TrEMBL record, chain A:
<dbReference type="InterPro" id="IPR000515">
    <property type="entry name" value="MetI-like"/>
</dbReference>
<feature type="transmembrane region" description="Helical">
    <location>
        <begin position="93"/>
        <end position="117"/>
    </location>
</feature>
<feature type="transmembrane region" description="Helical">
    <location>
        <begin position="230"/>
        <end position="248"/>
    </location>
</feature>
<comment type="similarity">
    <text>Belongs to the binding-protein-dependent transport system permease family.</text>
</comment>
<feature type="domain" description="ABC transmembrane type-1">
    <location>
        <begin position="89"/>
        <end position="279"/>
    </location>
</feature>
<keyword id="KW-1003">Cell membrane</keyword>
<feature type="transmembrane region" description="Helical">
    <location>
        <begin position="26"/>
        <end position="47"/>
    </location>
</feature>
<keyword id="KW-1133">Transmembrane helix</keyword>
<dbReference type="InterPro" id="IPR035906">
    <property type="entry name" value="MetI-like_sf"/>
</dbReference>
UniProtKB/TrEMBL annotation, chain B:
<dbReference type="GO" id="GO:0005524">
    <property type="term" value="F:ATP binding"/>
</dbReference>
<dbReference type="Pfam" id="PF17912">
    <property type="entry name" value="OB_MalK"/>
</dbReference>
<dbReference type="Pfam" id="PF00005">
    <property type="entry name" value="ABC_tran"/>
</dbReference>
<keyword id="KW-0547">Nucleotide-binding</keyword>
<dbReference type="InterPro" id="IPR003439">
    <property type="entry name" value="ABC_transporter-like_ATP-bd"/>
</dbReference>
<dbReference type="InterPro" id="IPR040582">
    <property type="entry name" value="OB_MalK-like"/>
</dbReference>
<dbReference type="InterPro" id="IPR015855">
    <property type="entry name" value="ABC_transpr_MalK-like"/>
</dbReference>
<keyword id="KW-0067">ATP-binding</keyword>
<dbReference type="InterPro" id="IPR047641">
    <property type="entry name" value="ABC_transpr_MalK/UgpC-like"/>
</dbReference>
Amino acid sequence: MTATDTPTRRGPGAATRLAARAGGGAVRLGLLLTALFWLVPTIGLLISSLRGPADISTSGWWRVFTDPAQLTLHNYTELMGNGTITHALLNSVLITVPVTVLVIVIGAMAGYAFAWLEFPGRDWLFLLLIGLLVVPIQVALIPVTKLYATFGIFGSLLGVILFHTAFGLPFAIFLLRNFFAEIPRELLEAGRLDGAGELRLFARVVVPLGGPAIASLAIFQFLWVWNDMLVALIFANSGSAPLTVALQEQTRQFGDNIDVLSSGAFLSMAIPLAVFFAFQRQFVSGITAGAVK
Amino acid sequence: MATVTFDKATRTYPGAERAAVDKLEIAIEDGEFLVLVGPSGCGKSTSLRMLAGLEDVNGGAIRIGDRDVTHLAPKDRDIAMVFQNYALYPHMTVADNMGFALKIAGVAKTEIRTRVEEAAKILDLTEYLGRKPKALSGGQRQRVAMGRAIVREPQVFLMDEPLSNLDAKLRVQTRTQIAGLQRRLGTTTVYVTHDQVEAMTMGDRVAVLKDGLLQQVDSPRNMYDRPANLFVAGFIGSPAMNLVEVPLTDGGVQFGNSIVPVSREAIAVAADKGDRTVTVGVRPEHFDVAGGQATSLANDEPAGVAVTVNVVEELGADGYVYGTAEIGGEQKDIVVRVGGRQVPLKGDVLHVVPRPGETHVFSTSSGERLSD
């Protein structure tokens, strides 16, 4: 840029800035509207869950805006009184929590081993593990069913937990191995010189440094398992079915249990959301992990 | 406190043809500060890591005191190391960083506290004990890394270029502090650096390595005054020694039109190898600028070598003249130190004479020192 065209550029510059500010507002408004639009089904579900069955079957949920008296907690009391649903909710927790813990613990240990311990065949084994990432669970359904029948754990909580853990591990190990491999070598060497054995090094240095990655993985793993229906539908029986399966069973061809459905669906959504917001800080720093030392 | 012995210690990396460290033999005294120095890739860091147990030893042995530690795990060697990037645990406070080794060793909490506070006082870190490393400046981090080593009270300190991440001024300051601290604690120390100034100023003795081979171990003074071969001569000293290849003559070697005396035996040794030339080395400060009246071979010419000045570096106290001279029919680059008050101009011609007794003669073919 030469000195002569500097002033001529300043005029449009101010205008551009003004336009940019106005444009920024427009963009922001657009984003807000998009977000609201995106939320409509969820809001509808929430409102439906707060209306009585008779209202739901006769009019749309938006009617509540003109007639707020329709709002009632009846569906939720009904839900809590429904033994199948509460039992299924308990099952969801009994499946999701152990799977998440198992995947994190085993995945972190294996990830550390793949990243920092030297043993013969390590790279081949890791390659094999990456290969397992592309195996869809559908191809394993029948063989695993037969296997479970042999061991007598078909239709049990244990079966569902083991299946989820097995299919969660390749990704967990892959993710954590790559995160742990980014830890500066000198840190681990310093730990070894300080007298730490592998286990202590893992617990006191590697895991604290891997915190963000572990938190992200925990959230994802929790969501996947919580929202799963296919695996539970096949491997759980009526006594061990989680909420997703129990809710699906409430939909019938004629006369849905719409009151239980809407409140149950909202409940099954609210719990992972709570988990997400609890770990949100770590989740965000997990996404940018490694960007800044 | 302990001695450290490298006994023909060798490290060959898998797949490499040449050893990274080849039959290293150094005996380090109890309480000594030994500096390993050399250009990058010379094996100095590998040697240190072998002593630390972070690198396998493929041949020979390493002993700390009377203990053979060749194949011991790092944690069983009773050593502490300061890394180039400090390697502080980012999730621990300064105090926890310094006390980590003691905690693992099962030392009582109050004892850890006292020892950490003691070390912090020595290093001027007391007010930072509660901070995390990311809230510290580079110099403070460096001191924490030192503190982590001191608190352990190990038999040997290992330092791998601990000053290279500091700015120039802080580096000079910290250099003195580390050397002083080591003298005070009296702990045997092995220090790795690529900076020959650091090596010369800090070490009781300096070991120069090149391509995995030990070139010379000696006190800084001797290293400077009597470099054992061409490589050491060129590596130690800044600016580097002038090294010029000249033909052999009777009674000495001819440098320009002055004679550098070399013993007959040394010349005989060189001649026996079939060498027609030797390499003469003169440090920049060992040239005298001649007025033309000094001893000269030809009376109609001024004595010494005529150097045409290309660049002058003025450092205040003195100056360095970078010039070219014609020696033996070839243009050679020559560096001469001159007094700070009589600096020549670019394009001037200086007549310089090597000071008697301050010249070095090396065999051109083997690089070994011929003069005494």
